[in-house]
Specification:
InterPro entries: Redoxin (IPR013740), Thioredoxin-like_sf (IPR036249), Thioredoxin_10 (IPR041017), Thioredoxin_domain (IPR013766), Thioredoxin_ResA/DsbE_sf (IPR050553). This protein is of the alpha+beta class and about 290 residues long. The protein has two domains: about 1-155, Glutaredoxin (3-Layer(aba) Sandwich); about 170-294, Jelly Rolls. Helix content is about 15%, strand content about 30%. It has six helices and 17 strands. The strands form three sheets. Strands 1-4-3-2-5-6 form a six-stranded mixed β-sheet, covered by helices on one side. Strands 7, 9, 10, 12, 15 and 17 form a six-stranded antiparallel β-sheet that branches.
């Protein structure tokens, strides 16, 4: 599997790491894509493991395998690495060659390789942080207390007990539960205005377009991109979000779509219940990809 790194030409945060350099080392291979909320919630742990165990011989390699078109651009990935503080080596896997070599199917996915390049542990998705770190310690032959991680903002773990809304794609390939009715049932959504729906995303052609979603969760996130910065306004049950505003809006619901990424638009402090979220864009050229919840 390590041989898959030998043909990779684009590395960030590091010169290319080849299989000969990695043999004899414990390698944590983390498959990710930067707009994925599930990966964002694992990042503080991966970062902490790199900081704690690098001196003991651990090498963390982030394999960036893009889900959406804008994630193929190395400059976008480079910006995300800087903004999110992912300080370890990252290899760009736009053609999914490393992904296929590992037989991977998930974002995020963690594989721990021993000094011979054999997979000794794997975990897919979030959680299992204690189990993963204990596996790192075992392979390194070290012991000790587990890292203490402070996760907040977009990295805060989902409120799984209150989460009743699933990941929802807005593009035509995987989009579902879209309706035209004014009244929305739980997990239904609608587009308002001049939108066209492509395979990956819904694209807004003129100002004033909106997206509404009836959800039940603590957080509402939306992956967005635009050709130029576009101001937007968020409403929760028709009102400004106030103290339920996410990190990318203020209490009045105002925000700006600038970089292509995931935007956290709602974070509620109180218990979640069914509510209607709506976002309205002041300009055209918006591409809306997927809702995620926490």
């Amino acid at each position: 599997m390590l041989a898959a790194f030998d043909d990779a030409s684009v590395w960030l945060n590091s010169p290319p790491l080849r299989s000969a350099e990695l043999r004899g080392r414990v390698v944590a291979v983390d498959f990710w894509t930067y707009s994925c909320v599930n990966w964002l919630r694992t990042l503080p742990y991966v970062r902490a493991w790199q900081e704690r165990y690098a001196a003991a011989g651990l090498v963390v390699v982030g394999v960036h395998a893009p889900e959406f078109g804008f994630e193929h651009a190395s400059d976008n990935v480079r910006d995300a690495i800087a903004t999110l503080d992912a300080p370890y080596p990252v290899v760009i896997d736009n053609e999914f060659a490393i992904w296929r070599a590992f037989g991977n199917r998930y974002w995020p996915a963690l594989y721990l390789l021993d000094g011979d390049g054999r997979v000794r542990f794997s975990h897919f998705g979030e959680e299992a942080y204690e189990e993963s770190e204990r596996a790192i310690q075992t392979l390194l032959g070290v012991d000790g207390e587990l890292v203490q991680v402070r996760a907040d903002d977009v990295s805060l773990a989902a409120d799984w007990g209150a989460l009743k809304s699933p990941e929802t794609y807005l593009g035509g390939t995987r989009g579902e539960r879209r309706v035209d009715a004014d009244a929305l049932a739980l997990n239904q959504w609608r587009l308002g205005g001049d939108w066209s729906v492509g395979e990956e995303s819904a694209t807004l052609a003129s100002p004033g377009g909106s997206i509404a979603y009836r959800f039940e969760a603590r957080d509402v996130n939306l992956v967005l991109a635009a050709d130029t910065p576009v101001p937007f306004t968020v409403r929760l049950d028709g009102k400004p979000p106030d103290d339920a505003a996410g990190v990318d809006v203020d209490e009045t619901g105002a925000g700006v779509l600038s970089a292509p990424r995931m935007y956290q638009l709602i974070r509620q402090a109180d218990a979640a219940w069914q509510r209607t979220f709506e976002i309205t864009f002041a300009g055209p050229g918006v591409h809306a990809y997927v809702f995620t919840f926490g």
